[in-house]
Design brief:
single chain, alpha/beta, 2 domains, 10 helices, about 50% helix, disordered C terminus, transmembrane, Glycosyltransferase family 2 protein, Glycosyltransferase_2, Glyco_trans_2-like, EC 2.4.-.-
């Protein structure tokens, strides 16, 4: 009788200034998964941390044989850090989660049970507004999901998180995607497959504060929407056509006023009209310019991230744990 081979789980965790959370998170994940019959590895991706996060990762990788780290050369952003970890994961299933303990590790067991029942992707979304978030974070999050659902063909539940499970076949497809600015929440939804969303309530951060300010969150939201959808271009085209039609309808009024001698002279209305349409034109050009800029950056074919160091080794062009 051939003994059954244990399935392997790869857990990818991006980190940025999380030095006080690393050891605690590893302990919590071990406590959850040691009671299962899976092999598992933890792949931490240090996204240009400015504190002692990298040293903590190196120290814990020496304590635990299944803990690996990837050090990026600078801060490339969370999605690229996730992509770096996912690209090196070798598990039958890959789970991504944050390092701040707001994603409850005990939910991993629930996600795995759905995976064993033939679901290819199990993602999570906040059941209610994050009780631990600041007011501007809640407002920005709400604006983001309304915007992405209105301006793209995919629909994301409000509060969709980066706490998700993906089968190996989904991960293999993600590894082939090479976009300059990648929006993983949208891309994973776009891939299709058999998906299930499950609600969760975020826990309080173990230590530290969220690093995103209001303007950073707003910038991230706008960038994600424009990265994943071309619908803003269609919207501004519609606005342009609408005002062009209104301008054409205005011509008969001007001609009749001139013939009847009722034309009203004045500069206020002219200045207001010029200012309005000038601002509209700048808005349209700005949106078009953003898309052209993205095409330009994509055409450079630069890598999405640069790895400075890792305790993974390269064998036959594949990275494996050592």
């Amino acid at each position: 009788m051939v003994p059954s081979v244990k399935k392997k789980i790869s857990i990818v965790i991006p980190t940025y200034n999380e030095e006080r959370n690393i050891a605690f998170l590893i302990g919590q994940i071990n406590e959850v998964l040691m009671q299962t019959d899976y092999n598992y590895e933890l792949i931490f991706v240090d996204d240009g941390s400015r504190d002692n996060t990298l040293n903590e990762l190196k120290f814990n990788s020496e304590l635990h044989r299944n803990v690996y780290y990837i050090e990026l050369s600078r801060n490339f952003g969370k999605d690229h850090a996730l992509k770096a970890g996912i690209s090196m994961a070798k598990g039958d299933v890959v789970i991504t989660m944050d390092a701040d303990m707001q994603h409850p590790p005990e939910m991993i067991l629930k996600m795995l049970s759905y995976w064993e029942n033939t679901y290819d992707i199990v993602y999570t979304y906040r059941q209610n507004a994050n009780p631990h978030a600041k007011s501007y974070q809640k407002a920005t999050s709400k604006m983001f999901y309304k915007g992405i659902n209105m301006l793209s063909d995919i629909k994301l539940e409000n509060g969709t998180a980066d706490f998700r499970l993906m089968d190996k076949k989904v991960v293999d497809q993600l590894k082939q995607i090479d976009e300059y600015e990648i929006f993983l929440r949208g891309i994973i939804k776009w891939t299709g497959y058999k998906q299930l969303g499950i609600p969760y309530t975020p826990s309080k951060r173990h230590t530290g504060e969220a690093s995103y300010s209001f303007f950073k969150l707003l910038k991230l939201a706008l960038r994600s929407i424009m990265t994943f959808s071309a619908r803003p271009l269609y919207i501004v085209s519609g606005i342009g056509l609408t005002f062009s039609a209104l301008a054409i309808l205005y011509i008969p009024y001007v001609l009749i006023s001139y013939v009847t001698g009722n034309a009203v002279t004045g500069w206020a209305s002219i200045i207001a009209t010029i200012a309005f349409f000038g601002g509209l034109q700048l808005l349209v050009l700005g949106i078009i310019g953003t898309y052209v800029g993205k095409i330009f950056m994509q055409s450079k074919n630069r890598p999405n991230y640069i790895i400075r160091s890792t305790n993974l080794t390269l064998v036959n062009n594949d990275l494996i744990g050592v």
